[in-house]
Write the structure tokens for this entry.
Amino acid sequence: RKEVEQDPGPFNVPEGATVAFNCTYSNSASQSFFWYRQDCRKEPKLLMSVYSSGNEDGRFTAQLNRASQYISLLIRDSKLSDSATYLCVVNEAKSGGSNYKLTFGKGTLLTVNP
Amino acid sequence: DVKVTQSSRYLVKRTGEKVFLECVQDMDHENMFWYRQDPGLGLRLIYFSYDVKMKEKGDIPEGYSVSREKKERFSLILESASTNQTSMYLCASSLKGFGYTFGSGTRLTVV
């Protein structure tokens, strides 16, 4: 099983649609979870952290299910500017030490059409 | 905001050359990372460092080395560049427990 697996996509949706991305991770000891956004030919940028209780930032909602090792991102009322690749990111937990490494999914490309 | 600066945006090098990619961060982060990103393969970790003079191999360290002599600077070295090292190289830094901040990337072409 791959460490972080995402919907392969691509997703093509009309403006105003609701779109959901799903992600599973294999390391049950992982403690930190994120969604990153990457625009074409740019670097990834942190979109939001994901907490056990679920969290919302405007039109974006992230959910974490530790029992199922599953993370989701919901985008409501999608805009043209939401077109990007969305990366699911999970930390690689190690006992002790101070090193801290993230594992990235391969990403899902979203295109929002007018 | 944290700034992570990569020395070059675009670079063209010849096969066999020794190549240095420099990365500097300005927020006293402990952790620094080098990734390469290729279509269909996603981000792959080359090396990372969690302290000065400390380094650990990532998933694809072959053909690369790194140097971290100062906390703010993490260098990636291609000992003898090859065409299969043509890629986008991304540097990132972080504090323990937080997400990464990436530099804008260096697109390296080896001819």
Notes: The first strand of chain B starts at residue 4 and ends at 6. Chain B touches chain A at residues 30-31, 33, 40-43, 45, 48, 50-51, 56, 58, 90, 94, 96-105 (CB under 8 Å). Chain B is about 0% helix and 55% strand. The two ends of chain B are 36 Å apart (CA to CA).
